[in-house]
Design goal:
This protein is of the alpha/beta class and 232 residues long. The protein is 33% helix and 20% strand. The longest helix is centred in the C-terminal third of the chain and has 17 residues.
Length: 232
């Protein structure tokens, strides 16, 4: 029965057609509703970039605030002491610590989605590079996750800021909401993400930068987006 639902949903998508962004959003949400999943799917944007990730001047990485959040509960761990630790807790951080937090992470505890640290804690955090690095969780000043203003960083993470980074194949992707969101909210979030990627264009990239954009729900078919309809 489920296989039949998937086949029926896929029939609604013309693989050879590039849809206007608003139409692509509408189609993804409609297909998810038709498939009647037993869980609330995420809506994901995947962008293919014409970059050479082996070149240091073609790295694409950054952070963007989604206007309507991600729909996910983000667990934040903060490395801080004293007043900064208190500020992080007051802002809603789920885990706050210093040496004790380092030991917990080294022991295998990693129940968090974002790691933030004050600059004076990087000596400790740096020892966790082999653990946090592969998961993309290493705090970075360029991403605002190494900062003395930990309270603001925690609030931003909780409110829907997402980090992005191009994979080896030149693909960057992120969830921009849930299928329970309105079309307008998904559209606004998708535009915010897409425009952040465009703004992050590396100086070393010549010619075409964005070659393909597609939208999909977690288990739904990809819907190709007409690049001329991205808007400002």
């Amino acid at each position: 029965m489920q296989g039949k639902k998937i086949r029926n949903v896929s029939k609604n998508v013309d693989r050879n057609k590039a849809y206007a962004l608003p139409e692509a959003v509408k189609l993804v949400l409609a297909n998810s509703k038709q498939a009647a999943r037993k869980f609330v799917e995420s809506v994901e944007v995947s962008i293919n970039l014409d970059i050479d990730t082996k070149q240091s001047d073609q790295a694409v990485r950054g952070v963007v605030q989604l206007p309507h959040g991600t729909g996910k509960t983000i667990r934040v761990a903060v490395f801080a002491k004293g007043d900064k630790a208190d500020a992080a807790k007051a802002a809603g951080a789920d885990i706050v610590g210093a040496e004790d937090l380092k030991e917990a992470i080294m022991a295998g505890k990693s129940d968090f989605d974002r790691v933030i640290a004050t600059p004076d804690m990087m000596g400790i955090v740096g020892q966790l590079g082999k653990v946090l690095g592969p998961r993309g969780l290493m705090p970075n000043p360029k991403l605002g996750t190494v900062t003395p203003n930990v309270a603001d960083a925690v609030k931003a993470a909780k409110a829907g800021s997402i980090e992005f980074r191009a994979e080896k194949a030149g693909i960057v992707q992120a969830g921009v909401g849930k299928v329970s969101f309105s079309e307008a909210d998904i559209l606004t979030n998708a535009k915010a993400f897409i425009h952040a990627i465009i703004k992050a264009r590396p100086s070393g990239v010549k010619g075409t930068y964005v070659s393909r954009i597609s939208l999909s729900s977690t288990m739904g078919p990809g819907v190709k987006v007409d690049l001329t309809t991205i808007g400002e």
